Amino acid sequence: MSTIIVGFDFSTGSANAVDLTIDIANRWHSDICLVYVKDKNEDEAPIRAEIERRNEAVAPLLKGIKMDYVICEGKVHEQLAEQAKQHDALMVIVGTNGMSGYEKNWIGKNTYRTITESPVPVLSIREGYDFHKDLKHIIIPLDSTTATRQKVPFAARMAKTFGAQVHLLGLYTSESNDIRILVNNYVSQVEKYLDQYGIPHTTVCLDARKNLTVTTLEYAEKTNADLIVIMTEQEKSMNSWLIGSYAQQMLHLSTCPVLSVRPEQIGSESR
Q1: DSSP string, 13-56
Q2: Would 3-125 and 137-265 be classified into the same CATH topology?
Q3: Buried b vs exposed e over 34-50: b needs ≥16 C-beta within 10 Å?
Q4: Cα distances (Å, whole numbers) of residue 220 to 138, 225, 255
Q5: What is the structure's pLDDT at 176?
Q6: Percent of the chain scoring above 70 in pLDDT
Q7: Mean pLDDT for the chain overall
Q8: Does residue 88 register a pLDDT over 70?
Q9: 95: closest CA among 157, 38, 11?
Q10: Helix (H, G, I), strand (E, B) or coil at 228
Q11: What's the half-sphere exposure (Cβ side, CA atoms, 13 Å) at 262?
Q12: What pLDDT is attached to residue 161?
């Protein structure tokens, strides 16, 4: 059976991540591995006792799946990535206020490092997000980079799982006709892919020369998005007002969950 890794540290954010992990794992018939990364001198006994107490409390919510846990020591992002490798995991899920005391509007180094180290896609969720509403609207931004379509199969799986509407967002980062034609072609290819799997979708193309992230987030707010699916390597606008990559900006600013995929994690199914 497949496995989903979830980072945990007793914070509210990581507890919410566990709740969402249970929902997804039940739908995918996947087991769950909860990973706690302790400090070098931290006593393991009370950690183990509290985790077992919590796992027992949520056991009735598990529908034919298992939830185990691992207590390890080291750097959080390295341990999460290592557990993902050992379990041949489908995905890693983390709460954005956990593991290093995140501030309200900052994702924290551990989450971004987890994304860059993880062999599988990482779903990051902010504390305070309403986890009890249905996941109904998924944003897939598409630019002119070759890798931009590679996130589509995983995003489509999420949409199929939750019966969600996909919003394809074509992003024009240049006035060049060649760039715009390329984006339009990629959007058309993804539309056909989604049609093939019977996934409902809408399409909008927007000028994003000033900032990819801001354009994406403004559209996400307009559509009441429940999830944004991005690649960790995406075009950067020369006029970007926020230092850092597109993925870092998105993780820093998005109030809704972000599913981050590295190009090497996904094959060429979308091509």
Answers
A1: HHHHHHHHHHHHHHHHT-EEEEEEEE-TT--HHHHHHHHHHHHH
A2: yes
A3: bbbbbeeeeeeeebeee
A4: 9, 5, 10
A5: 93
A6: 86
A7: 86
A8: yes
A9: 11
A10: strand
A11: 14
A12: 94
pLDDT band for position 185 (cuts 50, 70, 90): very high
Give yes or no for residue 179 having a pLDDT over 80: yes
pLDDT above 80 for 210: no
Write down the residue that tokens 């990364």 correspond to. Answer: 37
Answer whether 171's CB lies under 8 Å from 134's CB: no
Instruction: With both helix axes pointing from N to C terminus, report the angle between 109-117 and 76-86 in degrees, rounded to the nearest 10.
Output: 30
78 Cβ neighbours under 8 A, 6+ residues apart: 117
Q: Which residues contact 92 (CB under 8 A, 6 or more apart)?
A: 4, 5, 6, 7, 80, 81, 84, 114, 118, 120, 121, 122, 123
| Residue 246, pLDDT above cutoff 60 | yes
Write down the CATH superfamily of domain 3-125: HUPs (3.40.50.620)
pTM of the model: 0.88
Domain positions in the chain are 3-125, 137-265
Correct CATH for 137-265 of 3.30.70.2860, 3.40.50.620, 3.40.50.2300, 2.115.10.20: 3.40.50.620
